[in-house]
């Protein structure tokens, strides 16, 4: 492929870098799919040296695979990281990353309104193994310089889940560095298109790649990006031993997703802006939860995931059932529009979940705005809302 030698990669926008990130000597514009569980060796010495870590060669897909590595390299490039490691789910990325750096007796400070399954991991896995977990508001992380004293890891989301409160990441990163705490953030909502936490001082970024990175609701995956040293620590310990490795076919699909990420995020944002502009003045809407772009350093846009808090005049069940172009389901970030009422999670019996713990109102509906026509979606939602107001 002909290259313009006068243009360096840093001069290109992220959209262009992702669209042209893979360069194959064969001329193929997509990575080959290495759908193989293992890789063979020409001779005993090479095999022996590889097993001893003295020779770099693919050995077993649970440890490394060329197609998976192509996705990891692109994802690291997208976030401005030195390296990346991919997993079979977002929770595999979160759990494998935390368990690579946290041990019994350590303290983890977590932001309130954290992703519900991350909360369950903290409470059902880390806490019983002797890790001290505390939860703090976005404001406490920003304004209390001593909050992270004696802390091993600050686990962050910006924005956080459900209420979508954004955080001043450079300020929190500075507090953490002064106390020697590692910062880990879930950047699934903003994606590297709208926020690059490593450039703001954060140490490690995790993603549920099932969401916007994939964008097509056909992949479950996760990824972690950071310094070469941090990624190597994960590769040597939790990646092989916990076994949450991403499969080659999913990685191949994720490369496809990354190439259209910029265009999709701009579309999601435009639809979100239309909804927010119209919902904020609606008589039955108490609040629309979505961070304002540039309200905190480094957050340049908003995704299509928002939460709408209604007053008691709205019949939530009726609203959901009236919708035609919004499907009822978990997850988000795909091409399709989805709704998820908070009262479904709040009604769960048994263990306390994160929505109950952090006091989420049962009048909230989480909305994931897809890639359908914005006016079609609004007409559908507006009509269903009018039908459901008592």
Structure description:
This protein has 2 domains: 11-259, Aspartate Aminotransferase, domain 2, CATH 3.40.640; 261-388, Alpha-Beta Complex (Aspartate Aminotransferase, domain 1), CATH 3.90.1150.10. It has 16 helices and 12 strands. It has helices at residues 14-19, 44-51, 66-79, 90-101, 116-126, 138-143, 169-179, 191-194, 228-236, 238-242, 248-259, 261-279, 316-322, 342-346, 354-357, 374-388, and strands at 83-87, 107-111, 132-136, 153-157, 182-186, 204-208, 222-226, 285-289, 305-310, 326-328, 337-341, 364-368. β5, α8 (191-194) and β6 (204-208) form a beta-alpha-beta unit. α4 (90-101) packs across α5 (116-126). The longest helix is centred in the last third of the chain and has 19 residues, at 261-279. The radius of gyration is 22 Å and the shape is globular. The chain starts with 13 loop residues before the first helix and ends with a helix.
Topology summary:
Elements: H1 14-19, H2 44-51, H3 66-79, E1 83-87, H4 90-101, E2 107-111, H5 116-126, E3 132-136, H6 138-143, E4 153-157, H7 169-179, E5 182-186, H8 191-194, E6 204-208, E7 222-226, H9 228-236, H10 238-242, H11 248-259, H12 261-279, E8 285-289, E9 305-310, H13 316-322, E10 326-328, E11 337-341, H14 342-346, H15 354-357, E12 364-368, H16 374-388
Parallel strand pairs: 2-3, 2-4, 4-5, 5-6, 10-11
Antiparallel strand pairs: 1-7, 6-7, 8-9, 9-12, 11-12
């Amino acid at each position: 492929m002909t290259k313009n030698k006068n243009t360096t990669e840093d001069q290109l926008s992220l959209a262009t870098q992702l669209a042209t990130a893979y360069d194959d000597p064969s001329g193929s514009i997509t990575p080959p799919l290495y759908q193989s569980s293992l890789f063979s060796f020409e001779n005993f010495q090479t095999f022996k040296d590889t097993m001893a870590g003295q020779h770099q060669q693919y050995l077993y897909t649970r440890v490394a695979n060329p197609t998976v590595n192509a996705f990891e390299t692109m994802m690291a490039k997208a976030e401005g990281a030195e390296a990346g490691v991919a997993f079979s789910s977002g929770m595999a990325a979160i759990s494998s990353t935390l368990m690579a750096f946290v041990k019994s007796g350590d303290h983890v400070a977590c932001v309130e309104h954290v992703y519900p399954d991350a909360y369950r991991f903290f409470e059902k896995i880390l806490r019983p193994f002797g890790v001290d977990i505390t939860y703090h508001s976005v404001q406490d992380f920003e304004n209390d310089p001593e909050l992270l004293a004696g802390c091993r890891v600050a686990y962050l989301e910006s924005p956080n889940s459900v209420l979508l409160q954004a955080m001043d990441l450079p300020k929190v990163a500075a507090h953490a560095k002064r106390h020697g705490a590692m910062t880990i953030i879930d950047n699934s909502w903003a994606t590297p298109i709208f926020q690059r936490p490593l450039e703001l001082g954060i140490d490690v970024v995790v993603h549920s790649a099932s969401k916007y990175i994939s964008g097509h609701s056909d992949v479950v995956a996760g990824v972690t990006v950071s310094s070469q040293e941090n990624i190597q620590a994960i590769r040597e310990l939790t990646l092989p031993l916990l076994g949450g490795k991403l499969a080659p076919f999913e990685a191949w699909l994720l490369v496809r997703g990354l190439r259209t990420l910029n265009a999709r995020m701009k579309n999601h944002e435009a639809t979100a802006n239309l909804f927010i502009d119209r919902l904020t003045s609606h008589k039955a809407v108490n609040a629309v939860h979505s961070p304002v772009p540039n309200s905190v350093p480094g957050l340049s846009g908003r995704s299509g995931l928002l939460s709408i808090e209604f007053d008691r005049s709205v019949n939530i069940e009726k609203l959901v059932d009236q919708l035609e172009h919004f499907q009822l389901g978990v997850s988000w970030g795909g091409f399709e529009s989805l709704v998820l009422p908070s009262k479904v999670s709040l009604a769960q019996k048994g263990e306390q979940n994160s929505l109950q713990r952090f006091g989420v109102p049962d009048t909230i509906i989480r909305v994931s705005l897809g890639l359908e026509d914005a006016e079609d979606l609004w007409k559908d939602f507006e009509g269903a809302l009018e039908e459901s107001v008592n």
